[in-house]
Give the backbone structure.
Amino acid sequence: MHLPISSLASSSPVNPTPNDYVADHVRAIPRSGIRDFFEIVQNMQGVISLGIGEPDFVTPWHIREAAIYALERGKTGYTSNLGLMKLREAIAAYLAEDYTLEYEPSTEILVTVGVSEALDLALRAVLNPGDEVLYHEPCYVSYSPSIALAHGHAVALHTREADEFKLRPEALRAAITPRSKVLLLNFPTNPTGGVMTAAELEEIAKVCREHNLLVITDEIYSELSYAEPHASIASLPGMRERTIFLHGFSKAFAMTGFRIGYACAPAPLIDAMMRIHQYGILCAPIVSQEAALEALRHGKQGMIAMREQYRLRRNFLVHGLRQLGLSCFEPRGAFYLFPNISATGKSSHEFAMGLLKHEKVAVVPGTAFGPSGEGCVRCSYATGMEQLEIAVERIGRFVG
Ligand SMILES: Cc1ncc(COP(=O)(O)O)c(C=O)c1O
C-alpha cells in the first residue's frame, strides 16, 4: 500500500518508506520486458544473442578519430544550447539532399542527447495532461512510458503482419477522439522492419491534416531501408508545419555510445523543446557533436557498407527461419526480424525462455513491444554472420 502525498506531509504516525515518495505516474510504469529478460541472459554462459538493439560494428575509425582530435584541441566546454552551428548546418544540408527537407539551422534544428532525449522533449513540449498520443504497435519499448512520463495518454494502434506492419488510415481515423493531439510514427519500425511508401504516408498525412494532429516522426532507422528509398512524412504537402522530425546517429553510423541525435521542426516548436533542454541538459556533449559532424561530412560510404552487411544478414536469416517453417515477414528496413512463432503453440514469452534455456539463443519476446507483439519474437541481425548461422541451427533444433 502506498501512502498518499497528503499523508506524508501531515503528522501521520505511519513512517513512509522511500517508495512512498515515488510519484504515482512513475510507479505505474512497468519495468522494461527487455531488461528483465537480459538480466537472465547476462548470467548465462555461451549464449548467442539476437536480442541487442544496437549495431555490432564499432563506430568507423575516422569518426572516433574526430572525437579524439576534438579532445586534443581542447574541445571540452559547453556549446550553444541548440548545438554547434556547424553541426546544425551540416544536418540541414544532409536533410535537404537526402530527405528533401528544408530546415533553418539557426531556429529549426536542436541537437540532443540521442533520439531518446529528442522524443522526450517533443512530448513534454506539446502535451497537456490527458492529451492522447496515437502510435502504431508493436513499437519501440520507450514510446508508451515516454508518453506517460509527459502526462499524456498512450493510444496503441495495432499493426498486423498481413498488412506488412503498416499503419492503416482507417485504423488511425477510427481511434481519433477530441483529445487526440499527436500521432507518433516510426518507419522503418523497431521491432518489425515495416516501412511505408510516400503514397501510403500521404493517406496518413491526409487524416492528420483533417484532424489537426501533430506528427512526431522517429526516423532513426531511415538510412537502413532496403526496398524503396526512404520517404519522410515531413516532406509531404502541408506536413512540414505540423511535424517534429527526429533523427540521430546511433544506428546508421554505429554511434550509440556517443548519445547524439536531433529534432527539426518549425521554430515555435523547437523553441518550446529548447526551453526544456536548456534547463535539463544544457547541450549535447561537444565531443559527440564533433564526431557527428565528421559522420555527416565523410561517413556515407561507411554507412552504406554497413547497410549492405545488414541486408546480407537479413536475407540469410529470413531464408533460414522460413526453411524451419516459421512464417516470417521480410523486413524492409532497420535490423530486426519479427518472425511469427505461434505455429509452435507457445506464447512469445514461452518461446523466448525455452529457446534460451534449451539452446542458449536469446531473442526478445514480442510482447516486450506491446500486447500486439504476442505470437512473435524479435531477432536482431546486428550480429555477425557466423553467430547467425549457429543461431539458425539451434533454433532449428528447438522448433524441431
Ligand atoms: C525506434 C527507436 N527510436 C529511438 C531509439 C533510441 O535512439 P538513441 O540512441 O538515438 O537515443 C531507438 C533505440 O533502439 C529506437 O529503436
